[in-house]
Design brief:
The structure holds 2 protein chains of 2 kinds. By secondary structure, chain A is of the alpha/beta class. Chain A has 5 domains: 94 residues, Glutaredoxin (3-Layer(aba) Sandwich), CATH 3.40.30.10; 209 residues, NADH-ubiquinone oxidoreductase 51kDa subunit (Rossmann fold); 90 residues, Ubiquitin-like (UB roll), CATH 3.10.20; 90 residues, NADH-ubiquinone oxidoreductase 51kDa subunit, iron-sulphur binding domain (de novo design (two linked rop proteins), Up-down Bundle), CATH 1.20.1440.230; 55 residues, 2-Layer Sandwich (Alpha-Beta Plaits), CATH 3.30.70. In chain A, the strands form 6 sheets. Chain A has a 5-stranded mixed beta sheet with strand order 2-1-3-4-5, with helices on one face. In chain A, strands 13-12-16-14-15 form a 5-stranded mixed beta sheet. In chain A, helix 7 packs across helix 10, helix 9 packs parallel to helix 11 and helix 17 packs antiparallel against helix 18. Chain A starts with a strand and ends with a strand. Chain B is α+β, with helices and mostly antiparallel strands. Chain B has 2 domains: 56 residues, no CATH class; 87 residues, Glutaredoxin (3-Layer(aba) Sandwich), CATH 3.40.30. Helices cover 45% and strands 11% of the residues of chain B. In chain B, a hairpin with a 2-residue loop joins strand 3 and strand 4. Chain B is elongated and about 50 Å long. The N terminus of chain B is likely disordered. The chains are: A alpha/beta, B alpha+beta. The interface between A and B is large, with 52 and 39 residues.
């Protein structure tokens, strides 16, 4: 009998560590005698903490396991042999729809193997692809990647083989492989789960790339905000060295390769490859002019190939299963799978890996279970600050690079934030503009000042001071910011506004002309009134910062509209639903 | 984290091993990260010292220190409250949570309470989107928060802080 506890960041945040220490304590006290293992995120964050009970012939996966539930599972299942039915998510014979609809390539090992033990990775054909690669010619390797159709999973979807080939063709042997693990898109955590749950698959992908382009060193640029990922990567690198997969003359092939970690210091723009290189060199992360591309002039001016975590994690699978098998999955020029972090107003938030070509509707409703509290779906946001909101009329859009770009959003790195009727589209655009405005490195005037001006216009609209000509000005600025910026951050910064005006223009107009916010988010456009439910408890009056609520104890209170600053405190504190918002 | 609250209390000798470790070109961010690990922030004296002992101009160091969000130029309180400002938290009401915490502590993001007990910071996505809205206090994550619950949690930390002192 074996117990496996899910300890990704989400599992830990939900209390997974407490369950783990309870189990170790029980083992020490001889209350139980089972092997306890940890694993990474299985993707079903909404069920965390998740615990698997594994015996010779069955696996039972339990969700929402707090300490009390763990004690019950121990007494009833481990000791009594009876499954605790109400806590079961699925078993090896009865799968869950969330699992069944997915195709797992990148996440194949996440939530299954122990990421802190290389033996676990070796058992699932780990490093077999690397050994195979070492026996192949370099050109054959890039051809294999070309045939697979693999494209950059960081967002832009540039063909991976093309970058590899460009770096391979460069003279000299001082070249670098860089992994971009600076996952900065707010609302995306795919890369973190791979790093935490299956670090070796990333290392293996980098090694294969290193051999293919003729590099001797690999660098992983990872966010400092991911301490657990860094810890597991460090351990994985150490183990790979001990086993001889890193170092000199690897597996007697004559190939030397080392990998090291560089901790980022928090700057969204460093997700852009040339800014990332600047940061690697210890400088402010400001993008360089392209061309020359990093494949020619990169880290310390040497040829450098940069790919994202998910891209690298695909590589070993392609080598093991063949490029043809990989390219048979997907739709058109978008082959293979894509991992999405499903969040927002969704019932089952978590990680999903889907074959390219699946529709947004299938992902949100069949896998994600639909909208929280069964409210009405409004839009889905793809691509974070560089992307856009896709409305419900386009829910049947298949997820491919081409189809998503057509809508005006971008595939992005994999953030998929679902919004219901309680989300205001002006507010969402404001949120992203505020983000890009803060994260702009300041090099290009249009990005530095233009995003600020756009943000100011949006603030004007959401506070009820907008005029109709603001919309034209927004559109004009959006085009100029896009055309006048050097890197992807500035070029894509207007996307949330452009898609907003394309699909939700009525909502912008309602804010300007009618001074109303249908979603009741833009507080300055709201009015508060106390209804007959009021018991005169005085709680609202005591919490009003401008003292504009009057009334005797045990009598209905009244808000003085002329003094109300619309902070919403009265609404938030009322225990009797006595404050109406309209 | 160290107790030094004034710049005078900064023990610059602690920086020598760090400077020795990153002598190679391009190590400035590493040096600053480890300096912050030692002092909890980047004291002005420390940056001047790094400039005098390495190949970096003070202006370059200040430029890097102010570019990245990880670096702080002021000491932080005993507890660091990080409010997630990710998209999922935003659409799930992080603004209300943030306002409640700000009202409770009487400070804005980026500031520290006078008693040096709390520092409040806005951070980009913490990556626990399914638990949104989320805050992190020191190493502990709190999810699915309402404004009321957030205030309750902060008050518990304050209570514990008071007990420690008595």
């Amino acid at each position: 009998m074996k117990i496996r506890v899910g300890l990704g960041s989400c599992g830990i945040a939900a209390g997974g560590n407490k369950v783990l220490s309870l189990l170790s304590e029980m083992n020490e006290n001889k209350e139980i005698d089972v092997e306890v293992e940890v694993t990474g995120c299985i993707g079903m964050c909404f069920y965390e903490p998740i615990v698997d009970v594994i015996s010779d012939d069955s696996t039972t996966t339990y969700g929402f396991v707090d300490e009390e539930m763990m004690k019950r599972i121990v007494s009833e299942h481990i000791n009594g042999g009876l499954i605790v039915k109400e806590a079961v998510i699925y078993t090896n014979t009865k799968r869950d729809n969330y699992e069944l609809a997915q195709t797992k390539i990148v996440l194949r090992n996440c939530g299954i193997i122990n990421p802190e033990r290389i033996e676990d990775y070796l058992e699932v054909s780990g490093y077999v692809a690397f050994e195979k690669a070492l026996s192949m010619e370099q050109t054959k390797l890039t051809e294999e990647i070309k045939e697979s159709g693999l494209r950059g999973r960081g967002g832009a979807g540039f063909p991976t083989w093309y970058k590899w080939e460009a770096a391979r063709k460069q003279a000299g042997n001082e070249k670098y492989v860089v992994c971009n693990a600076d996952e900065g898109d707010p609302g995306a955590f795919m890369d973190r789960s791979i790093l935490e749950g299956d670090p070796h698959s990333l290392l293996e992908g980098m090694m294969i790339c290193g051999y293919a382009i003729g590099a001797k060193e690999g660098i992983i640029y990872v966010r400092a905000e991911y301490p657990l990922a860094i810890k597991r990567l460090e351990l994985a690198i150490r183990e790979a060295k001990e086993k001889g997969y890193l170092g000199e003359n690897i597996l007697a092939s004559g190939f030397d390769f080392e990998i090291r970690i560089k901790k980022g210091a928090g700057a969204f723009v460093c997700g852009e490859e040339t800014a990332l290189i600047e940061s690697l060199e210890g400088k402010r992360g400001m993008p360089r002019l392209k061309p020359p591309f990093p494949a020619e002039v990169g880290y310390w001016n040497k040829p450098t190939n940069i790919n994202n975590v998910e891209t690298f994690a695909n590589v070993p699978w392609i080598m093991n299963n063949g490029a043809k098998t990989y390219s048979s999955i997907g739709l058109g020029k978008s082959t293979g799978t894509k991992v999405f972090a499903l969040s927002g107003k969704i019932k089952n938030g978590g990680l999903v890996e889907i074959p390219m070509g699946m529709t947004l509707r299938e992902i949100i409703f069949d896998i994600g279970g639909g909208i929280k509290e069964d409210k009405e779906f409004k839009a889905v946001q793809l691509g974070g600050p560089s992307g856009g909101c896709i409305p419900k009329e386009l829910l049947d859009t298949p997820v491919t690079y081409e189809h998503i770009s057509e809508t005006g959003a971008i595939m992005g790195s994999g953030g998929m934030v679902v919004m219901d009727v309680g989300t205001c589209m002006v507010d969402v655009a404001k949120f992203f503009l505020d983000f890009t405005c803060k994260e702009s490195c300041g090099k290009c005037v249009y990005c530095r000042v233009g995003t600020k001006r756009m943000l100011e216009i949006l603030e004007k609209i959401s506070s009820g001071n907008g005029v109709m000509s603001d919309l034209d000005e927004l559109e004009e600025l959006a085009v100029n910011v896009r055309d006048g910026s050097l890197c992807g951050l500035g070029q894509s910064a207007p996307n949330p506004v452009i898609t907003g005006l394309k699909y939700f223009k009525d909502e912008y107009i309602a804010h300007i002309r009618d001074k109303t916010c249908e979603a009741k988010v833009c507080t300055e456009l709201l009015n508060y009134k106390i209804n007959d439910n009021c018991t005169g408890c005085t709680l609202c009056a005591r919490n009003c910062p401008t003292e504009c609520i009057e009334g005797q104890r045990k009598e209905k209170h009244i808000i003085d509209q002329s003094k109300c600053i619309k902070c919403g405190n009265c609404f938030n504190v009322c225990n009797f639903d006595a404050v109406d918002v309209y | 984290m160290c107790d030094c609250k004034t710049e005078k209390g900064v023990n610059l000798d602690l920086l020598n091993p760090v400077l020795d470790k990153y002598q190679e070109q391009g190590g400035l961010i590493n040096i600053l990260q480890e300096t912050q690990d030692i002092f909890g922030y980047l004291p002005k004296f420390a940056m001047e010292y790094i400039a005098s002992k390495s190949n970096n101009k003070l202006a370059t160091i200040y430029g890097v220190a102010t570019f990245y969000t990880q670096f702080r130029l002021n000491p932080i309180g005993k507890h660091l409250i990080m409010q997630c400002q990710g998209t999922a938290c935003h659409v799930n009401g992080s603004k209300d949570v943030s306002r409640a915490i700000q009202d409770e502590l009487g400070i804005s993001p980026g500031e520290t309470t006078e008693d040096m007990l709390f520092t409040l910071e806005d951070v980009a996505c913490l990556g626990c989107c399914s638990l949104a809205p989320v805050i992190m206090i020191d190493d502990d994550t709190y999810g699915n928060l309402s404004p009321k619950e957030a205030v309750k949690i902060v008050r518990e930390y304050r209570k514990r802080g008071d007990q420690d002192e008595n």
